């Protein structure tokens, strides 16, 4: 455990005494759980793909190490530094997002990944935290309806290219997060009614336009047509019981292709039991409540709106992943934060949570433009 004297005015010491160490500890627990679960669930997947037994375990740790570094470095920033980082990320990854439908290889009916120096990158993952901070800044500086119109412009830009991939799950998440920021900003209710109506119309249109989305919804609504992976995930949850089969003793992971990524929650249920899953759900719920409380206490409107959006991104992604694993909503390729194996998702989440820690530090305040 770090120990610093309160009289020490170094950057790291100041960070230690002002950062939310409880939330930081929660993220550490999630990262540790992720290592354990990926270690237990990934070897059969690696064997199926004819990769080394520990391929995904090693890569998970290799992604986790820079993620920890990014989270720490980002959490050291002042609110203005967070804003500058977000603007830079929005420009860079926004441009990458714009060219993704053209440059990306189609996988399962969607184009979401592009290669950067031989490494696959999903730009939308990095656009998420950047968009949250940028929209929070606009809403904090231009209150009322004008603020909504100006903040909606970058959001509309992102939604346009998400739909062109198409990535309907990320589109829905973006709308949910932006709506939460509008609610905290105190925007009139008619705006929420309009957003809700547009969302319903958008989902209806997507159902008829995108074949893969149509098939997923039809399969979800038909009790006799459960998808292959969802059926396997439900069997894993049911077979785990209260205490699970034991680490490494799960069977469903041998036939579940995404046991270490999208369906890691089901793999956890089978090997460690429902009680372990309930503890994991409780941890995510605690992180959400803690984050919202810290956002409420922020003395700066920008910090409050940005922190709210960032914690809603984190919690919504966790909720969507677990809901898919339990067949409570149609399948969506979304990882469980800091638990699932993943490169772009892990790094982007680290930056986002680093921003949250920075914006909720004691005394954090953007102040007037300078």
Structural class: mainly alpha
Radius of gyration: 21 Å
Distance between the termini: 37 Å
Biggest β-sheet description: 2 strands, antiparallel
Strand content: under 5%
Q: How many domain units? A: 1
Written description of the protein model:
With 370 residues, this protein is an all-alpha fold. It has one domain. The protein is 70% helix and 2% strand. The chain is built from 13 helices and two strands. The protein has helices spanning 11-18, 21-48, 55-75, 79-103, 123-141, 145-164, 168-185, 189-209, 211-221, 228-240, 264-297, 301-325, 344-359, and strands at 114-116, 119-121. A two-stranded antiparallel sheet has the order 1-2. A hairpin with a 2-residue loop joins strand 1 (114-116) and strand 2 (119-121). Helix 5 (123-141) runs antiparallel to helix 12. The protein starts with 10 loop residues before the first helix and ends in an 11-residue tail after the last helix.
What labels would you give this structure?
single chain; 370 residues; mainly alpha; two-stranded antiparallel sheet; 70% helix; globular; lipid-linked peptidoglycan transporter activity; membrane; cell cycle
Q: Helix and strand layout, with pairings?
A:
Blueprint: H1 11-18, H2 21-48, H3 55-75, H4 79-103, E1 114-116, E2 119-121, H5 123-141, H6 145-164, H7 168-185, H8 189-209, H9 211-221, H10 228-240, H11 264-297, H12 301-325, H13 344-359
Antiparallel strand pairs: 1-2
Helix pairs in contact: 2-3, 2-11, 3-13, 4-5, 4-6, 5-6, 5-7, 5-12, 5-13, 6-7, 7-8, 7-12, 8-9, 10-11, 11-12, 12-13
Short description:
The protein is mainly α and 370 residues long. It is 70% helix and 2% strand. β1 and β2 (119-121) form a beta hairpin.
